[in-house]
Amino acid sequence: MAVFSVLALEEIRMMNFKHVVAIVRPDVLTALEGALRDLGIRGMTVIKVRGMGEHDGIDFLSRDHLSDYLKMEFYVEAAKADALIRTIMEIARSDLPGAGIVAVKPVEWFSRVPEGGDTLPDVFVG
């Protein structure tokens, strides 16, 4: 049975990760998947969403102005974040407004959920 030590948790917490969120048109997903695989990005979350960007004169209560998008979320090592962002921007680029957005946030703590018999310490220090 593997046991997480406080030292191991501290090492995981201190790793420099970024949370990259991209909202893009659904038609770019296939191209992005291939490019991300080539970058060595192995994990992402994709959620179907509806929304709209900044537009003048829009009635925010009307659903007629909402468009279908995909919200993609990534937790990546900071060293890979720039390449990920550039790839998303290049593939999602469009001459039409509403192509999407990309945002990056720092991650204070990161760990994968333990498998099987792995146990966690009683207290997380963070």
If you had to describe this structure to a student in words, what would you say it looks like?
The chain is of the alpha+beta class. Helix content is 28%, strand content 26%. The protein contains three helices and four strands; from the N terminus they run αβαββαβ. A four-stranded antiparallel beta sheet has the order 2-3-1-4, with helices on one face. The longest helix has 15 residues.
Q: What's the helix and strand layout?
A:
Elements: H1 6-14, E1 17-24, H2 29-39, E2 45-51, E3 67-77, H3 78-92, E4 100-106
Antiparallel strand pairs: 1-3, 1-4, 2-3
Helix pairs in contact: 2-3
Gist?
The chain is an alpha+beta fold. The protein has helices at 6-14, 29-39, 78-92, and strands at residues 17-24, 45-51, 67-77, 100-106.
Shape descriptor: globular
Would you tell me the overall average pLDDT?
80
Q: What is the percent of helical residues?
A: 25-40%
Give the H and E element order. Answer: HEHEEHE
**Main sheet?**
4 strands, antiparallel
User: How much β-strand is present in the residues?
Assistant: 25-35%
- Rg calculated over all Cα atoms: 18 Å
Distance between the termini: 25 Å
Question: What is the number of E strands?
Answer: 4
* Low-confidence spans: none
Major sheet: order of its strands? 2-3-1-4
Q: Give me the number of helical elements.
A: 3
Report the structural category: alpha+beta
